[in-house]
Amino acid sequence: MNGDDWLADTRTSYDTVAVSYADQIGGALAGEPYLRAVLALFAELVRDAGGGPVADVGCGPGHVTAHLHGLGVDAFGIDLSPGMVDVARRGHPGLRFEVGSMTDLPLAHASVGGLLAFWSLVHVPDDAIPTVLGHFRRVLRPGGPLLLGFHVGDGSRLKTQGYGGHPMRVYVHRRQPDRMAAWLRDAGFTVEAKMVLDLDGSAPGAALFARRGRVSA
Ligand SMILES: C[S@@+](CC[C@H](N)C(=O)[O-])C[C@H]1O[C@@H](n2cnc3c(N)ncnc32)[C@H](O)[C@@H]1O
């Protein structure tokens, strides 16, 4: 993988699968009580920190953005894939979705009261993680909560098809929660909680709750 090839490959891949991803995953939260609990806790943390707009970064078809909106959160979505953003806008016409990359997040300094990245960091290579977390910290208000969801494990695999056999070329990186927590601390976050999901299953995931410190580093 050279330079930013992964970004172009990821964008093209999710443009290709956007409609089928929405069909297959767009209603998934209904069957995911633990994820709903994670999102409800995040919504409470955002409210307690003063509210404000919340960025769902790597929002895909916008179902998580919409779920948060239903919990009273002023959520909007950003995604690398214009195809995903089109699908999100069509599926959730009352909400705001924009094209953008978390590697160069098009949001102003201290402009959001909360930020989540749900299974979108899984495509970001290790060497780009500090840059991405630096953007997350930059755009969050002091004290603002951050929620990361990601695949737990070690190593990376190249996914060449998905969501109904459509061609893809995306790397899927699995990480141990402690490693992600260490990256977060290095980026200036305080890590507050870790929840491991599907612990005995074939695709364990983790939710990490962190917070941008109130004192500027
Ligand atoms: C596995 S999907 C997750 C979508 C949604 N968050 C969910 O929970 O179903 C990964 C999403 O991350 C987006 N993505 C990948 N790299 C990104 C980047 N650098 N910036 C913004 N979005 C990105 C993809 O386009 C895709 O929509």
Bin the strand percentage: 25-35%
List of distinct ligands in this structure:
S-adenosylmethionine
Largest sheet: 7 strands, mixed
Mean pLDDT: 96
Instruction: Give the strand line-up of the largest sheet.
Output: 3-2-1-4-5-9-8
Which topology does CATH recognise? Rossmann fold
Helix fraction, binned, reads 25-40%
The CATH architecture classification is 3-Layer(aba) Sandwich
- Name the structural class: alpha/beta
Please state the CA-atom Rg, rounded to the nearest Å: 16 Å
Number of helices: 6
**In sequence order, what are the helices and strands, one letter per element?**
HHEHEHEEHEEEHEE
Tell me the number of structural domains. 1
- CATH class term: Alpha Beta
Tell me the distance between the termini.
33 Å
Q: What multimeric state do the chains show?
A: single chain
Basic shape: globular
